[in-house]
Amino acid sequence: MDEANYSVVSEFVFLGLSGSWQIQLCLFVFSSVFYLASMMGNLVIVFTVTLDAHLHSPMYFLLANLSVIDMCFCSITAPKMICDIFKKHKAISFCGCITQIFFSHAVGGTEMVLLIAMAFDRYVAICKPLHYLTIMSSRMCIFFLVTSWIVGFIHSLVQLIFVVDLPFCGPNVLDSFYCDLPRLLRLACINTQELEFMVTVSSGLISVGSFVLLAISYIFILFTVWKRSSGGSFKALSTLSAHITVVVLFFGPLMFFYTWPSPTSHLDKYLAIFDAFITPFLNSVVYTFRNKEMKVAMKRLCGHLLHYRKIS
Questions:
Q1: How far, in Å, CA of 168 to CA of 94, rounded?
Q2: Which pLDDT value is given to residue 126?
Q3: Distance of alpha carbon 246 from the chain centroid
Q4: Cα 104 to Cα 248: distance, rounded to the nearest angstrom
Q5: What share of the chain is helix, strand, coil (3-state, %, to 5)?
Q6: Burial class (CB in 10 A: 0-12, 13-18, 19+), 29
Q7: Band of pLDDT at residue 67, cut at 50, 70 and 90
Q8: pLDDT by residue (tens digit) across 93-116?
């Protein structure tokens, strides 16, 4: 093919989830409700941790940043999907597609590292309680946060460095509601099997490796809690259960994407909905309703707000 015919695709077209008007209406209501709920829930966590002095600790600092990441993650694909549901022509520009892929991988990679940092925080708090404040200092917390974003952006750049210059000269239809790297690679005008394999292996290794590391960490922590089996251990176990739930919710769909031999496109798309809408919402629910300190802080904050309103 002549070089002049390369890179003529200026936009990509999404097929979406369904052509049925009834299903589209259900999807619109479902996605709008869960998007708003996840944004509100995570905003409540951020404001509560920021405004309540009792929550100014390393664990809640990391939790607030996880909530910020969840809001970023669901905002990468959700608003575009909600706006496109009733459109016949669901399109995104080439630059918009690359940007969406870049930030989804960057934020996803950042969340992986932050979840590892939160596991380390729980390990120190439970296994080395006397040295907790010394090890988990403000400097260490900021180091974890900066490192997680750096690793996330590097991971995303590595994924996209070979993609931005690929020739797209004909097919431009993506059987999805968002820009997905494996599907995008299949639209290139050259053979991308090796590149697809590299992307799948690198993302799969990172996700599975991070999950295995987290699983080993939490098993070790749970074993330590079981050995002590004191009153304080029940509180630690309650906190750990919230962390473990969030880890499973985040890594479950992710590992399916990159380790299942040949997932169906429909299952792929519905798992992506789970990742984009339900996981960020459930994260906020898990960390509020299953965390006694958060519930007490939220009640205290509501009490202060009502008090100030009465005074004014």
A1: 10
A2: 84
A3: 10
A4: 19
A5: 80, 5, 20
A6: exposed
A7: very high
A8: 988 999 999 999 899 899 999 999
User: In 3-state terms, what secondary structure has residue 276?
Assistant: helix
> Cα-flanking dihedrals φ and ψ of residue 14, to 5°?
-90, 140
Measuring CA to CA, how many Å separate 36 from each of 18, 94, 165, 232?
A: 22, 28, 36, 36
Alpha carbons 40 and 279: distance in angstroms, whole number:
14
Which distant-in-sequence residues (6+ apart) come within 8 Å of 112 by Cβ?
A: 151, 152, 206, 207, 210, 250
Element (H, E) at 170: none
Torsion sign over Cα 9, 14, 19, 22: negative
- Considering the entire predicted model, what is its pTM? 0.85
Name the band, by pLDDT with cuts 50, 70 and 90, for residue 134.
very high
Cα of 39 vs its chain's centroid, Å: 13
Q: Angle at the Cα of 77 (from 71 to 79), degrees rounded to 5?
A: 80
Contacts of 292 (CB under 8 A, 6+ apart): 235, 238
Whether 187 shows a pLDDT value over 60: the answer reads: yes
Residue 305, token pair as written in the block: 């707000």
Report d(CA 310, CA 302) in Å as an integer.
12
**What is residue 3's predicted lDDT score, i.e. its pLDDT?**
46
DSSP 52: -
Q: Which of 182, 188, 183 is nearest to 165 (CA)?
A: 188
Characterize 243-253 residue by residue with b for buried, 16 or more Cβ atoms within 10 angstroms of its Cβ, and e for exposed: bbbbbebbbeb
pLDDT at residue 53 is higher than 70: yes
Nearest to 226 by CA among 234, 216, 238, 215: 234
> Does residue 262 register a pLDDT over 70?
no
Whole-number Å distance between alpha carbons of 217 and 211: 10
Backbone phi, psi, residue 90, to 5°: -95, 100
CA angle 264, 265, 271 (to 5 degrees): 90
